[in-house]
Amino acid sequence: MSRLYIRGMHGLGDNLHQRGVLRQVAERYPEIWLETSWPSVYHDMPAIRCVAKGTSLRTQRKNARRQSALFRHAPAIGPQMRIWYAPADVRSTGSVLAAMCANAGVDHERADFRMPVPAEWIAAARAILGTTDRPILVYRPLVERTEWGGCRARNPDPQAYLQLFERVRDRYFVVSIADLVPRVEWMVSEPIAADATFHAGELHFEALAGLFSMASLVWASPGFAVPLAQAVGTPVVCVFGGYESSRSFASGARFTPYLGIDPIEPCECFQHQHACRKAIDMVSAAQRVDDFLSIREAA
Q: For 266-280, what is each residue's pLDDT tens digit?
């Protein structure tokens, strides 16, 4: 049968990684019906027909409403599969993408989730940002949110995050992005001197992808910003705390320069309440950041 119905994942980062699975599945099924809240992630994949994935998650629900015209009504459901992974899968396979591939029965070595960015997405980002003659750095502040309790464990130490960032801040035009709502999602990192701040969800996905593709560097903690940077080809530095280690996003390093800064004792507990040790060897971390940027600037 040429049609397949796929129960996809919720998160934006997971949807970006899914591209590497779906490309291979589409070799066997020219018509794929995918449950997702992020239809624009698959803008260049004609085999994908997007079906609204009902959810109570705030960001996903907001994007699905905004892009409701891109969803289709699924035909009678025939053959199905589910894209998913469990913490044990990430630990055993070495990354989120490798875990997805193992569960979907596709080849991790061939899993390519890179995403072209249309010119109109870049234009949307430029219209919001304005012009600058300095290289752009996209900065993600540390946040916590009520709908997912793992942020506190996952976030790096705020002081270490700030101190490492301050080493590079003056080289860039810094754009800080978030989608904050009082008592729903809030910032827990130290304030920085950004050149442009968009903390109220002003940038929809297409403008975000355009901005990330324009940037010279993305600075983030674990989350969607890492696979988005990798998908559009922008170097990314990610500072880790607990919950998971830099291995989670290692697959994307095949496509895009990636520096993961782990604590001295990396933890892959994938638990919300575990007392992960977040202390970072700051001398080593600072040298690694300097070396990473020196290589990028010399290229």
A: 999 999 999 999 999
Q: Are 161 and 289 in contact (CB under 8 A)?
A: no
| Mean model confidence pLDDT for the chain | 96
At residue 298, the 3 state secondary structure works out as helix
Amino acid at 264: I
Taking a C-beta distance cutoff of 8 angstroms, is the pair 234, 216 a contact? yes
Structure tokens that stand for 156 in this block: 């790096």
Residue 24, SS3?
A: helix
d(CA 44, CA 231): 13
> What average pLDDT does the segment 277-296 reach?
96
- Which value, to the nearest 10 degrees, does the dihedral of the CA atoms of residues 203, 209, 213, 216 take? 50
Write out pLDDT tens, residues 232-257.
999 999 999 999 999 999 999 999 99
Q: Nearest CA to 45 among 70, 73, 10, 77?
A: 70
- Where are any strands of DSSP class E within 146-283? 173-177, 185-187, 196-198, 217-220, 236-239, 258-261
pLDDT digits over 147-196, tens only? 999 999 999 999 999 999 999 999 999 999 999 999 999 999 999 999 99
The Cα–Cα gap between 228 and 14 comes to 10
Please name the residues in contact with 260: beta carbons below 8 A apart, sequence gap of 6 or more: 238, 240, 245, 246, 247, 249, 250
Question: How many other CB atoms are found less than 10 A from the CB of residue 198?
Answer: 18
Measure the CA–CA gap between 199 and 206, rounded to whole angstroms.
16
| Residue 111 one-letter amino acid | A
CA 179, CA 203: separation in Å to the nearest integer? 9
Task: Check if the beta carbon of residue 220 is closer than 8 Å to that of residue 175.
Answer: no
